[in-house]
Amino acid sequence: MSGVIYTARDAAHKRMVETIRAGRSLPFDPRGGVIYYVGPAPAKPGSIIGPAGPTTSSRMDPYTIPLLELGLKGMIGKGERSEEIKRAMRRFKAVYMTAVGGAAALISKHIISCQIIAYHDLGTEAIRKLVVRDMPLFVVNDIYGGDLYEEGKKRWRR
């Protein structure tokens, strides 16, 4: 993937959903956007960002549907999503992608800019605007109900 993506983990998601429910604007427009479930490590001097590996996506499931309702089109993390979220992704035509866990240093090399845009008080869980180039990802859940994890399980059950 190349382009702009936003970072958010549990605490930021909770705050965003509280903001939505209060009728206020989010710190970025989720329409057509992608959120990466990551809390990057601090950057070393001269680096744009520290290691930036994915976190477990299911922890964001309680907060996902309000963001999909606002037009979010992609999420990046690791691990499986709930059936409720997979149905919502089909309904709202959104996709879930995975970045390889354990490859945080490699992934960070594909981040060409990083700017904290909201929730500075959350530290590593603050929302960041990232620009990425050729970030290696796999589509796990597509808009048609495809599920890469289920396909892999079926293949190896034989």
How is this structure best summarized?
By secondary structure, the chain is an alpha/beta fold. 29% of the residues lie in helices and 22% in strands.
Keywords:
158 residues, alpha/beta, fumarase, seven-stranded mixed β-sheet, 5 helices, 7 strands, 29% helix, globular
How would you name the CATH homologous superfamily? Fe-S hydro-lyase, tartrate dehydratase beta-type, catalytic domain
Q: How are the strands of the biggest sheet laid out side by side?
A: 5-6-1-2-3-4-7
Distance between the termini: 33 Å
Largest sheet features: 7 strands, mixed
Helix content: 25-40%
What would you say this structure looks like, in words?
This protein is of the alpha/beta class and 158 residues long. It has one domain: fumarase (Alpha-Beta Barrel). Helices cover 29% and strands 22% of the residues. It contains 5 helices and 7 strands, in the order βαβαβαβαβββα. Strands 5-6-1-2-3-4-7 form a 7-stranded mixed β-sheet, with helices on one face. Helix 2 runs parallel beside helix 3. The protein is globular, with a radius of gyration of 15 Å.
How are the secondary structure elements laid out?
Layout: E1 3-7, H1 10-21, E2 34-36, H2 61-69, E3 74-77, H3 83-92, E4 95-98, H4 104-108, E5 111-118, E6 127-132, E7 138-141, H5 148-157
Parallel strand pairs: 1-2, 2-3, 3-4
Antiparallel strand pairs: 1-6, 4-7, 5-6
Helix pairs in contact: 1-2, 2-3
